[in-house]
Design goal:
five-stranded antiparallel β-sheet, three-stranded antiparallel β-sheet, 4 helices
C-alpha cells in the first residue's frame, strides 16, 4: 500500500482490509480540508461497531491503540480543470486485522499492531469491510453539511492533543511544542514555549 510522503504501508494478503473509495463532492477544495479527519472518525466508528474497541487517532491519519498503529488513511483530490472544483476525492484506507507481531517487518514490530493483537480475538475481515463501507457512506452524507460536528468528534478521538510534539519542516529547524487543538479545517494547533500558536 501507499502512504503519505511516498511511504509504504505493509498490506499482506489475507490479513487486513485495504480499500479505496472515490467520492464525488463537486465543491471547492477548501471545503474538504477536513476529509482525512472525517475518514478517521468514520474508521473509528467501523472498528468500534465490529470489535467493541474504539481506537484513537494520531493526528492526522493513523488509527492507534496502546501505542500501536492499526490503520492508515491517505486522501487525494483531483480537480476539474475548468471549474477548479474537486472532481473526485480518493480515500485509501488500510486496517491491520489479523496480523500477529511476527507478521510485521522487524523495523516496525514495536509500533505496528492489528485488531486481533489488541482484542485477543479472531477478526472477521468481511465484517470489518462492511462496517467500513457503511461508516464511509454515513460520513459522505454529512461531509459538507456537518463539518463542525465531524471535527468535534475528531478532537475526542485525537490522542495527539495535549502531547508534546516536534514540528519538522523541510529546510527549517525542528521546533518543539504542545498540541492544543484541531482547528476548523482539521489542522493541528501547536503552542510553542514562547506562547506563540
Amino acid at each position: 500500500g501507499r502512504g503519505r510522503l511516498g511511504r509504504s504501508f505493509q498490506s499482506p494478503a489475507g490479513l487486513g482490509v485495504y480499500l479505496s473509495v472515490i467520492l464525488r463532492p463537486n465543491c471547492p477544495p477548501a471545503q474538504l480540508m477536513h476529509l482525512t479527519c472525517a475518514a478517521g472518525v468514520a474508521m473509528c466508528d467501523a472498528v468500534e461497531r465490529v470489535t467493541g474497541l474504539r481506537p484513537g487517532i494520531k493526528w492526522t491519519n493513523d488509527l492507534v491503540y496502546q501505542n500501536r498503529k492499526l490503520a492508515g488513511i491517505l486522501t487525494e483530490l483531483t480537480l476539474d480543470g475548468v471549474s477548479g472544483n474537486v472532481s473526485s476525492a480518493i480515500v485509501g484506507i488500510g486496517i491491520n486485522c489479523c496480523q500477529q507481531e511476527a507478521d510485521f517487518a522487524p523495523e516496525i514490530r514495536d509500533i505496528a499492531g492489528s485488531l486481533s493483537m489488541v482484542t485477543g480475538e479472531e477478526i472477521d475481515r468481511a465484517k470489518i469491510a462492511a462496517a467500513m463501507m457503511e461508516a464511509l457512506q454515513q460520513m459522505d452524507r454529512i461531509l459538507l453539511t456537518d463539518k463542525a460536528g465531524i471535527l468535534n468528534r475528531y478532537r475526542k478521538d485525537c490522542i495527539t492533543l495535549g502531547q508534546e510534539i516536534s514540528l519538522l519542516r523541510v529546510g527549517e529547524e525542528v521546533r518543539h511544542g504542545r498540541a492544543v487543538d484541531v482547528d476548523a479545517e482539521g489542522a493541528l494547533v501547536v503552542e510553542f514555549s514562547d506562547g506563540h500558536l
